[in-house]
Design a protein that fits this description.
With 322 residues, this protein is mainly α. It has helices spanning 7-28, 63-77, 79-89, 94-121, 126-139, 147-150, 154-179, 183-213, 215-227, 239-248, 254-268, 279-321. Helix 7 (154-179) packs across helix 11 (254-268). InterPro entries: Fatty_acid_desaturase-2, Ferritin-like_SF, RNR-like. This is Acyl-ACP desaturase. Its cofactor is Fe(2+).
Amino acid sequence: MSRQLTDLEILRELEPVAATNVNRHELVATAWSPHDYVPWGRGRNFARMGGSDWSPEQSQLSDVAKAAMITNLLTEDNLPSYHRQAAKYFSDDGAWAAWVGRWTAEENRHGIVIRDYLLVTRGVDPVALEQARMQHVSNGFGATAEEDARHKTDFLLSVAYVTFQELATRVSHRNTGKVCNDPVADRMLQRVAADENLHMIFYRNVCGAALDLVPDQALEAVADVVENFRMPGQGMPNFRRNGVLMAKHGIYDPRQHLDEVVRPNLRKWRIFERDDFTSRGEQRREQLATYLENLERQVIRFEEQRERRLSRDAHRQEAKAG
């Protein structure tokens, strides 16, 4: 019979794991300061300070890079929502509290450095950016649409979600740096992506320990997140438009989500090799396997459609040039 524990019991049982991983993180994390990654010499005053306000021709970023930068920054800006959820579902003392504080402080640097870069280089409209930030942070964010309806172990759902989410944002930041055509932006986003990877490892290790402790309950959380995953930028202004651009140009697309985010974590946890699930857990695992098979088919269809769209766009460009 698989153990069924409450959130409080799970937190208590896993606190030594959290403590070990907080210590590990502090040993391997790199200390860095946002100001060291911003090209301050490229900055100048805006109109209210006697300079000139932003205009589109000032930006050296492509439309794709702008969309990705804005999406990534607004995602980081919603840190108050993420902190609120972590503080709600984790303990407010001991190793859990130490992690929430450390993680929040590190995540805050990401929004600082990306915004400073965009303002100094005049990469995007700062007024529109601030309006979008106000709207997005005011709306808040929940891990999955099914969170309140289906899941009672909120801690497990939260840990499973952030494992996938941190890896997803690492992929998005890293690929955004590549399309900016600016070595400064690339270096900056490599630094941010490295943080995200370390955060993912903490959550992945905790989730792995939860699978050992309460296999069926943890699997339910993992499967719920995979099947209902929403990027943390969901709900921000122009999210769908920007997401389409990012997917079209390979910054974060369904193939990357499946092959670079979902499957690596499932392999690390040995979801399809474990033998400690009850019949209920095995049934849930079969449902997850079916979902992944369907997702693979959807990914293939997306890739075929994208190839056709890119081909049509290339032909149009050739026709214009001719």
